Amino acid sequence: MTAGPTAMTRRRWTRLLVVGLGCVLAAACTTGSDRQEATGTSQASAGPTRRDYWPTAGWRTAAPDQQGMDAAVLDDLDTLVPATYPQVRSLLVVRHGYLVYERYWQGVDASDGHNSFSVTKSVVSALVGIALRDRHLQGLDQTVEELLADHLPADADPRLRRVTVEQLLTMTSGLAGDDSLVGGLDGISDRMAESRDWVRHILSRRLETTPGAEFAYSSAGSHLLSAMVADATGRSTLAFARAELFGPLGVAADDALEQEIRDWPPTRAKREAYEQAPVAWPRDPQGYHFGGAFLKLPARELAKLGYLYLNGGRWDGAQVVPADYVAASTRPQSDPSQGPGGYGYQWWLTNETGRDSFRAEGFGGQLIQVIPELDLVVVITSDAGQGRGDAADLVGAVIVSAVTG
User: Can you spell out the DSSP letters for 59-126?
Assistant: First the structure.
């Protein structure tokens, strides 16, 4: 029997939720043969590089050769991308703080927002660091029981009560993974999205492994981090981000769309409103912004997050994210059995042609990649509906090779 529109919509959105949360672990989402395992030294700059401006009010552009890049190599992307990587919607290259390459395809322009999928996790991680800076959170060893006591069911797994912030950041909480293709539990994300209380639903689960013992890619854990930030600061995750992260970086989020997802899959009207919004961050039924995915921002704003971390969390004279937290976030903290490399605090660690790198990565080709040795930030956004994760190959195969000095 042919599935009707409702069943087809449910399957599509469930697939986007489940696969989008776990796809970066699957073999299809790893990149080309030039990518090597991170050596363990990949991290943001220990000290701030001297900058002649900050892109708070907008990125300055420069010719590639003015910033030590080969314009002809970058220009080849104009034909290579639509011919070989048709899923790509935008590609930005920032060298020495200047935008040296910026292209959009599929009718997209610089004002359009992009569903960043699991790049959202890296934003939530930054907010955890800021909450630590301001002492809203007292330390990475604080537990679920301390921070989410009001949400814990009476019969919660005792081990889950003792899970720490750091274990959630490193995907070693013991919660089941989200994608059955890589060892997670089938349908677990769907059941969370269908529940009336996402946080309590997560806290009602039995742990699959001992906390701290094994890596399992869990967007549920990232959502707990979002709830912790909100409860500890007394503001919604987005409100805290506006004041302490987006504001200092000049990311315009005052008019962000904040839809509550009370029904799964979302209604057609909600889906269309989300697609049209340049900035959006959906919330669960209790109002917590989803920590695992679906933050939507324009590509130039995504580049600012990479540039912040390239500069060790410092921005225009202010230490927005603590330097030691950024350093810890961008060095290996846990060891995934699959994926592009090691894992820090909601950041992936990898290697591009012998150079250590770190990146925020989302389903279907969403990428913020930072290569500190080259003072380089690359942003790629893609049409996730095409289900391709190979756009990251462009970094090692073309963009790094364009660096001339």
Answer: PPB--GGGGTB-HHHHHTHHHHHHHH-TTEEEEEEEETTEEEEEEE-TT--TT-EEE-TTHHHHHHHH
The pLDDT tens digits of the residues spanning 9-57 come to 444 444 455 444 444 443 333 343 344 444 444 566 545 579 999 999 9
Of 384, 17, 23, residue with least CA distance to 191? 17
Nearest to residue 237, comparing CAs of 315, 314, 319, 294?
Answer: 294
Q: Please name the residue that has the structure tokens 């970094």.
A: 395
Q: Are strands 342-343 and 348-352 parallel, antiparallel or unpaired?
A: antiparallel
β-strand 314-315 against 318-319: which pairing, if any?
antiparallel
Indicate the fold that domain 5-402 takes in CATH: Beta-lactamase (3.40.710)
- What is the tens place of the pLDDT at every residue in 75-109? 999 999 999 999 999 999 999 999 999 999 999 99
Of 297, 365, 335, which is closest to residue 37 (Cα–Cα)? 335
Dmax (CA) of the chain? 64
Burial class (CB in 10 A: 0-12, 13-18, 19+), 397: middle
Contact 357, 367 (CB under 8 A): no
Domain boundaries, the chain: 5-402
